[in-house]
Design a protein that fits this description.
The protein is of the alpha+beta class. 32% of the residues lie in helices and 27% in strands. The strands form three sheets. Strands 3-4-5-9-8-7-6 form a seven-stranded mixed beta sheet, sandwiched between helices. A five-stranded antiparallel beta sheet has the order 13-12-11-10-14, with no helix packed on it. Strands 1-2 form a two-stranded antiparallel sheet. Pfam families: BPL_C, BPL_LplA_LipB, HTH_11.
Length: 325
């Protein structure tokens, strides 16, 4: 796989110019027959190459596929995405990432699927993701961190995703505490963080991210059409998924490094700039019951602060949050 990864990297760096079979062979350290074989395999996956005698090959177009080589080609990260596992169809990227973590996979391992048939969201909900449209991925982390601080990772991931959508995709997205990304009040992305730990240390932490990219309104089940959206619906045009994955990983790694070095304060500041919840009247639903109040913000640990009608402040650690119009 390393050969194909380097081959794609070469063609992307060539920016549409021809590369001779001899040059490719020399730089990759393989025979020209092997070069031809790898190019034919890429053609079968949807890549379009032009081949001209005495000039060589040039890459004409790239399919919207999330194979490992495509993600890693041009990925500007230090650790995140250094190991990528791609599956056309899978039950859940979270489940697969759990398997890899238990087998000793390194921090930064990414599991990506074109289609999930058993995708899961928060509180055991099903995450709907038709084939060929969305991003379903799970990232493995192995932080040296106190257990009580782990929920902050979810808020950190939300910031990285929203900043990617705002800066890279030019879409105004916002965070609804704790783990929903909204566009025009509708959910476009969910984040699920799962933990494996003992009382005194974390073995690993997995961030699952499900982002609706090119789903049309008709592709959503009827029961979620009024509350779900996609980047395609927001922009009115399809977007390529791999560059979005690369941007999320890049921004997530940079923010993660800042967090490990400087703590939650800089993450909190950026989260508040992205949040839709703060200052809004909300209904909080927990297993213990429901109440209504105003979201004041989050505290220094990431807990939601809600002011009730009597003026008291309630700390909300886990709940469904409904924002009133």
């Amino acid at each position: 796989m390393k050969i194909r990864e380097n081959l794609l990297q070469m063609f992307k760096q060539a920016k549409g110019e021809f590369l001779s079979g001899e040059e490719i062979s020399r730089r990759l350290g393989v025979s020209r027959t092997a070069v031809w074989k790898h190019i034919e395999e890429l053609r079968e996956e949807g890549y379009v190459f032009e081949a001209v005698r005495r000039s060589g090959y040039r890459l004409m177009s790239t399919p919207d596929v999330m194979i490992a080589e495509e993600i890693k080609a041009g990925l500007n990260t230090r650790v995140f995405g250094s190991e990528v596992h791609y599956y056309p169809t899978i039950d859940s990227t979270q489940n697969k990432c759990q398997e890899l973590a238990k087998a000793g996979a390194p921090e930064g391992t990414l599991v990506v699927a074109d289609q999930q048939v058993g995708g899961k969201g928060r509180l055991g909900r099903v995450w709907h993701s038709p084939p060929g449209t969305n991003i379903s991925m799970s990232l493995l982390l192995r932080p040296t961190l106190e257990l009580q601080k782990c929920p902050q990772i979810t808020l950190l991931a939300a910031v990285a995703i929203v900043e990617t959508l705002r800066d890279f995709c030019a879409i105004d997205a916002q965070i609804k505490w704790p783990n929903d990304i909204l566009i025009d009040g509708k959910k476009v992305c969910g984040i699920l963080t799962e933990l494996n730990a003992e009382s005194d240390r974390i073995h690993y932490l997995i961030i699952g991210m499900g982002l609706n990219v090119n789903t049309t309104a008709e592709q959503f089940p009827e029961d979620v059409r009024e509350v779900a959206t996609s980047l395609y619906i927001a922009k009115g045009e399809p977007l390529r998924r791999v560059p979005i994955i690369q941007q999320i990983l890049y921004r997530l790694e940079k923010l993660y490094d800042v967090y490990l070095e400087d703590g939650f304060a800089p993450v909190k500041e950026r989260w508040e700039r992205c949040a839709i919840t703060i200052g809004k009247k909300v209904t909080i639903r927990t297993l213990q019951g429901s109440f209504t109040g105003y979201a004041e913000g989050i505290d220094d640990s990431g807990v939601l602060l809600v002011r009730r009608e009597d003026g008291s402040i309630t700390k909300v650690y886990s709940a469904d949050v409904e924002i009133h119009a």
